[in-house]
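Sanity check

After download, print the first record. It should look like this:
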Amino acid sequence: MSYKTTDGLMRHLRDNGISISGSTQKQQLVNTGYYHGYKGYRFFGNASKRLPFSNYSEIYATIQYDSALKALMYGKMMFIETAVKNVALEEILINANSESIQTMFDKVISGYRNAPLTATVEQKKKLQQNKLNLQNSVQSSLANAYRKNNPKITHFYNNTGYSDVPLWALFEIMTMGDFGYLLSCLTYDVREDISRRLGINLSADTNRELVYKYIYTLKDLRNAIAHNAVVFDTRFRNIEPTRAMKQCLMTDFNLPYVNFKTIGDYIILMSYFMKMLGVSKTERKAFVRAFEKLIEDYRNTVSPAVANIVIHPDWPARMTAIKNFI
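Expected structure tokens:
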């Protein structure tokens, strides 16, 4: 199979209507990659929605915009993940009255025996299966950490002074996805305690599911950022938001809709968590202003035809809603 050199790829781009020339753009193509860069950014959302690029500078500006978005969100995402874990951990410890992982399973994880009184037999079986799946996941996480000599875990297994790994150590090694699953397996009462502690709008959350559904939503973005995948068009989106997920943010931000089909909706969700977690108004304002500047700068570096696809037309109104919420 033949391959193309960088010069060959530049000719290929020109043959496909993309103006590219000179040593600077050649180096940009080398640095961002033809396959990761051009192939990854030439469409919006899905391959059928091609962006009408006419020159490589627009492609490079799109890659830079995407990278800047990831840089803006990464630190805040790590903060949200850690802080929500700490809130959930404390509420679980209080409800279990123990730092034992087994006691957590016995007291605060839903199963057949402690299912809601209104649950059907099939619903009880599903809760029990989820509990068993969670137990498998926890044991697998601990085994992987031990195999990799993670000191947070080996310290407890290799020390005769300890009988087991405490719950807080488990939380240190849990992925965001595993954390979301654990939250989903908690009893209704414990999920309610966590939601109240965070300050989630419970009027939109009858089943007390928002805390883990929002974590799942952020998990998809977090993983995309961590693996340097494309984020500007939310192609990483794996969830179909429930009515409650949409209604909560629509009510609190006074928005006509929320669907997580634009990156702005993830900024909204992150702003929501930052406010609940007590981040200062100054820091929240700076976060939103930085996002706004990224959009404005990007719009000034690409053609209107490209900008009109990438930037949602009602973004100014949504930015106003975010600022009013802050």
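If your output differs, re-run the checksum step. Summary of this record's structure: The chain has a mean pLDDT of 92.
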